[in-house]
Fold this protein.
Amino acid sequence: MASNSSSLSSISATATADQEISKIRRYLPQILAVSVKSVLLVVYGLTMGLPTILIPSLSGGIPGETIELDKDGISWIGSLNYLCVPLGCILSGTITKPIGRIKAMQAICMLFVAAFLLFHFANQAWHIFVGLFLTGFTGGLLEAPTLIYTVEVTEPSLRGAMCSSSTLAIALGVMVSFILGTVFPWRTMVLINGTIPLAGVILLFFIPESPYWLIMRQRVDEAGRNLAWLRGWTKVDNVREELQLLSERFQQLEADEPSWKKSLKQYGKATFVRPYLLICLTFVMAYSGTTQINIFAIKLFELLKVPLDSYYATILIGFVECLGSICLMVAVRWLGKRLLCFIAQSGIAVAFIITGVYTYQLGIWNFDAPIAKESIPNHTWLPLISILSIGFFSYLMTFTLPWIIMGELYPNNIRDTASGLSAGSGYIIAFIANKPFLDLVNWITLPGVFCMYSAVALAGMVFMYFLLPETEGKPLSEVTDHYAQGGVRLSNQVGRSSSKSKRDDGEFCAQ
């Protein structure tokens, strides 16, 4: 009887402690931790926006510029970094496990600094290509630590919004790159860019290491303190139950650790194959048109003679992409990923059709055959609005989708490596989509390319209707069970936060 009374008192004390912590206080440290981590993604966005500035700067005709590239060199500027990312992705999970999420992210920041310095002092073409290789490789390295850190420190009710904030950070980096490229020469721009990862190194000292990683390293006391920090700067006693759950499930996972042959077999199971194929399909959607628009934005705006300076128009692209990311963070908790995916794909399909019809009517067949100024109609705002719409809808969900579900669909025992493999595959898809873009335009014309991208968007919407599960607001144990043999399939309803879902925060450890 005394034991029961003690247990009831303990439960009552825990409940009282939970009540004293407001939802804002509980969520704020998780948001701060993810925001600091997002500095790396802002830096990656800077590198994504860099080719857009480099292409017109290195195409010739710029006074004082010592580097000039031909068309083949220009096509490599828009695609080389994507080709190099998979190598970093493959190594990403490997370096993250032994040194931890925080130290891995700090090392990656320093590599970005080195890459920006290389760009600044470049005086030959191969310096540019080495810089692109380094930014691509480093961008691949950041995949596992940034993605897994977000999943491991956030609760299910926050997970969707926090994962989608990664795209907002990338979009912000792209916009900053466009703004700096408009105001400063490109060499000054990259020097300014290099200060941001330096700031990231410092800020990362102020956020806690992942509690789950600490448990993996047998540092349970430190894991408890970090978990208490992340759950509202509370006492360790108030998170003891969650900490115990994490520890027990890690011990169970460690006891069941298979041999390397059995580990390899994990990648032949449906729990890897089906999510992997789905993620690859979402990458096809993400890189079919949207990245090409960004990379060749300045040339495209000059060709269409939009009623704005081409550099200012690219800033608008960065702005609407940030706006789309913000809308995603707000709407994903209520509408879910499936509905937002359908909305985004529909918007992209319509915008590409409008752009394709416009260029067809004006006879704009490729980048080498601009139309005469007198033949431009009065509605020159139309192509600008349609291109901005492509940027908005792509960041509303399409570009974001693979990165969100990558951290959700895989079971924990292969999540690090599987996420790296998936990200690497995605960047190979991006390279395949970007490198032949100019040749594709010469082959099927610019209107034909735009219509092809519209068809891909519509086809992707159909495939996602049948293949994409709704994971928003649902515990990771339920998400990964969706693909397990005999597992219960997820419903298409958006999960709502509850007291139980808060306790399910650590269920990824059971997988």
In short: The two ends are 37 Å apart (CA to CA). The first helix runs from residue 2 to 20.
